[in-house]
Amino acid sequence: MRVAAVVEFFWIAGAVLQLLLAATLIYRRAWRNFPFFFTYSLINLLHAAACLIFRGNPFLYFYVYWVGEGFSTILGFLVVYEVFKSIFLGHPGLRKLATTIFSVSLLILGVFAIMILAHEGQTFAHNISRSVIVIEEATRTIEAGLLIVLFSCTGAFGLHWRHSVFGIALGLGIFVSVELIAVTLRSHISAAANNEFAILRAVAYTTSLFVWGTYMLLPERAMDESQLPQRGQLEQWNQAILELIHQ
Predict the structure, then answer these.
(1) Which of 52-66, 100-114, 165-179 shows the lowest mean pLDDT across its residues?
(2) How many independent structural domains does the chain possess?
(3) Would residue 29 be called left, alpha or beta, if left means φ above 0 and alpha means ψ between -120 and 50 degrees?
(4) How many angstroms separate the CA atoms of 203 and 47, rounded?
(5) DSSP 8-state symbol, 247
(6) Which residues are within 8 A (CB) of 116 and not within 5 positions of it... i.e. 6 or more apart?
(7) Which of 11, 108, 182, 229 has its CA 20 to 30 A from that of 135?
């Protein structure tokens, strides 16, 4: 099977899954609990449709694709924040501590992203395609780093994940991680490997769509009684942090 045919297959499969995900989110009225993720999904659906319409025009396709990627990346940051806020809902003390960790991590990752951009020098300034790839590498680095911080914080605090929230974070984590690997490798390998990277990214995004749709359809599980002692310890930590903050 030709590489172009494989890319086309995953493109169509992704579009179908995006439509199904949008229908699922509308059915579950996801905009009430996850407005950023709902917007992120719809923007990606419109972006895919626009790319399909303009793919015969290389000039328009270039700008439609990268403008859409820009909006998607910004919304991706907001989705991470939305997941973060949802997980720490009801634990103001832990949320305050985690917000500090989150903010410091964002600052460090931002500095790291600036170092990536600065490292490119003259190449970055005179090559549009190269510039776009470097910017995406920097932003994906920040996004992946924030997801790592998110999973680390929830693991450290022993917080309970709701199915829908975990699904959003897991799907985004899969997509962003593969995107970061692909973009990083692409900047150091010849353009001949572009088709292989296109397939890799398409597979990652299709997998993420499947994860999001599946977890959105799963019923939320009730709290296991065996988790109650851990829950009590969690509340003690939350109260201790609140007392420390208000001293």
Answers:
(1) 100-114
(2) 1
(3) left
(4) 17
(5) -
(6) 134, 137, 138, 141
(7) 11
